[in-house]
Specification:
Mean pLDDT: 89
CATH superfamily of the largest domain: Thiamin diphosphate (ThDP)-binding fold, Pyr/PP domains
Radius of gyration: 33 Å
Number of strands: 24
Shape: globular
Keywords: Glycolysis, Oxidoreductase, Thiamine pyrophosphate
EC number: 1.2.4.2
Strand content: 5-15%
Catalytic activity: N(6)-[(R)-lipoyl]-L-lysyl-[protein] + 2-oxoglutarate + H(+) = N(6)-[(R)-S(8)-succinyldihydrolipoyl]-L-lysyl-[protein] + CO2
Protein name: 2-oxoglutarate dehydrogenase E1 component
Low-confidence stretches: 1-17, 70-84, 946-954
GO molecular function: oxoglutarate dehydrogenase (succinyl-transferring) activity; thiamine pyrophosphate binding
Distance between the termini: 71 Å
Structural class: alpha/beta
Amino acid sequence: MAFIMKQLQDTSHLFGSNAPFIEELYENYLADPASVSDTWRDYFDKLQAQAGASVRDVAHGPVIAAFEQMAKRGPVRTVVTEGGEDKLQVAVLQLINAYRFLGNRWANLDPLKRTERPQIAELEPSYYGFTEADLSRSFNVGSFHGFSTERATLREILEAVRQTYCGSIGSEYMYISDIAQKRWIQSRLESVRGTPKFSVEMKRRILERTTAAETLERYLHTKYVGQKRFSLEGGESAIVAMDELIRVAGSLGVAETVIGMAHRGRLNVLVNTLGKSPSMLFSEFEGKAASDLSAGDVKYHMGFSSDVMTPGGPMHLTLAFNPSHLEIINPVVAGSVYARQVRRKDANKTQVLPVLIHGDAAVAGQGVNQEMLNFSQTRGYGTGGTVHLVINNQIGFTTSDPRDYRSSLYCTDIFKMVEAPIFHVNGDDPEAVAFVTALALEFRQEFKKDVVVDIVCYRKLGHNEQDEPMVTQPLMYRKVQQHPGTRKLYADRLVAEGTLAADEPEKMIAEYREHLDRGELLYNPVLSGHNRQYSVDWTPFLKQPYTDEADTTVPVQEIKRLSERLTTLPEGFSLHSRVKKIIDDRAAMGRGELPIDWGMGENLAYASLLAQGYAVRISGEDVGRGTFFHRHAALHDQKRERWDEGTYKPLEHIQDGQGGFQCYDSVLSEEAVLAFEYGYSTAEPNELLIWEAQFGDFVNGAQVVIDQFISSGEAKWGRLSGLVMMLPHGYEGQGPEHSSCRPERFMNMAAENNWQVCVPTTPAQIFHLLRRQMIRKLRKPLIIVTPKSLLRHKEAISSMEELANGRFQTVIPEVENLDPKKVKRVVLCQGKIYYELLAHRRDNKITDTALVRIEQLYPFPADEFAKAINQFPNAKEVVWCQEEPRNQGAWYWLASRQHLVNVLGTKRKLLLVSRPASASPAVGYYAKHNQQQKAILEHAFGPIQETTPQSPNL
């Protein structure tokens, strides 16, 4: 960089206002060295060589940065360059680039025409010193693609850039750093001046789609008066966009499209894009739709799937189920798409397409979009780009003042963080909408990155059909009431240009309404009976009764073989000394020389499943190594010379033909990443999917995913998921944000066997629990409250025999040889506190108190619990002992549901030992933590001052 700066400073003709001209020449040189003169090519070749660039365009960034800096500080000099061009030639190139950068500000985007065109000096010829006399002067057009020759008059150039960048399409892409992407967009836009030239057949199709969108909304408005449907009226061009998207995607080889959207226009997309029968929709409006779901959901949250024919062959369409949390569906769709791409071995990411439809206020306002965009190009989460459609009704929620619901110029500015091109388009120009949608899709397929179509439209009705927008938006809605509608405007245009007869548009409406009266679609795209090669059969998992039983045994010899594979490294692979000790110890465990610890038990569970053909995916912020240095599923060569080399994952090398293994350290996100994994799990039942929180407390950041999807997805939508959440938990004096995964929240939402909540305390338990999750023909989410310090506890170990021939024990009864008749008290506990209670009992030689571990909190194992308790007929006191405060943890749930009381009956007293009720999960003072922990242990075995009523009303 220093050399380039000196070289440029020594070369006076590169100063100031000439910089854009030089930049233009340099970009042309990078694209094609032969496109510039010999003098310039020789100069740029020297720059490349002397800057040490090994690839032609590596030095582009520093050179351009140098140009920009020089342009800022002057002095300004202009020179006569080759071919006799003077300073006006440089100005022409500046003017063209100004329209590429800023032309969108003058574009005709708003159907309501509510704002005046802003004053932008850079778009005026006079800004560059041009006069009226210069309009007829001929200039080189540089890289502009809209001319058949290299030269044009200034008048022609001005007309071309304004047609291209200031018409119904406003483009933003010049911030993209990749030259090839910018040139690609320029060639597509500028070659047609931003104005598509469609055939008569295509124009008729566009009007048919617009008519279908409007007619359905008006039909529902009159047939089901006052019912919520979140109308698409004013944004009908979104249906045109979806139609063109699917048509073009099919021709480009897309076989599956997964769509995510909130409620605005959803019913219209269901019917007019996915081909849902209107009769089915009418039944939902009338409350006649039969469902065996325990809860169900409102009609504008429901998903749907179908197979449709495209120019490239059949395509499977899926509209994901969605709660009212708007943008939260986006990473769910990404996860579902990723799973389908893995299943298809679609390494190029071209066969499965994610499409997300946003609202203008939500896309700017909800942070999950930033999280999702942040992982959109990463290895473990990137889907090859998403096509984003924004139904931009310019108002957000009814009561919003546009000054209050975002700080950026456009609602789509967030997408600039990943350099996604953004195409703003006037929704009243359906042809322009179709054109940029196809352009966006082609860009995505070519460059494998996100792209945005911002359909600027309006909303004819209120936020819902019971809302009156005139109350808070009188100015806007006077404009809306005067608007004839997108369909009418486009129909009139086609009639005026002679494409349609005057009566054809009304005939289209009448014909569509006739079919709606019969509950049918006029244009039904759905293929019946189509058998998809990559479909997943969920039938074995449907309507299965819950069971805790599964044969999770693995022969000893197989465990030894798997251990050997887990601890065999490539020749010359250099481990960190601490990791080498762990791997060496694991090898000894596999030989039976050491007991198995937690990390080895967990890895053996994965290895055994992979050997049986199941796939495994682990995701989270520190899952390769493990936050607490226990997993080491990804090993790192300490002698590697490049950051992207020298990583070895033993679980990828278990045996030939094994299941696929993925292990990715995620971006620093809980909400979007957990939503991604949930989406993945709903598309793939044959893969063990694990998301691990760095600390269990951090799951707070993903609460909406837990509430709206994981806990209730089956009850609302019938969507099964076998997702596993690992939440490190344990009170070790690390303060309020590093102690509790808030198990009380999961317990409060536990009902209808919606998920499992387990607290395993031994390596054998985690081994069998993870294996059980896949081997049972049952797919339920699994919440595992995992340990931290317990990972290396000297007594939290298991024998190879326990792994080989054991099972997951929902309750672990007393394991020491106490005299059952002398036991007066049974302490029920879970997790780390068990080992502390055990140590306290031994240190104080207590023999009249038994310890029983409840390893599965939900579904509560009443029978196993009863067996463990009834071993001690003389125990009149049963204590629930937990580390969490009284108002947290599992206590309130267990007591209020009377799970414990129902087994204990009236002859045993139920007591509680816990921390005092607290607004915070844990204390921040280490001394106070120790004081509380000591009190818990003492009270568990000694006098308990406070008793708990045996009542569900606590």
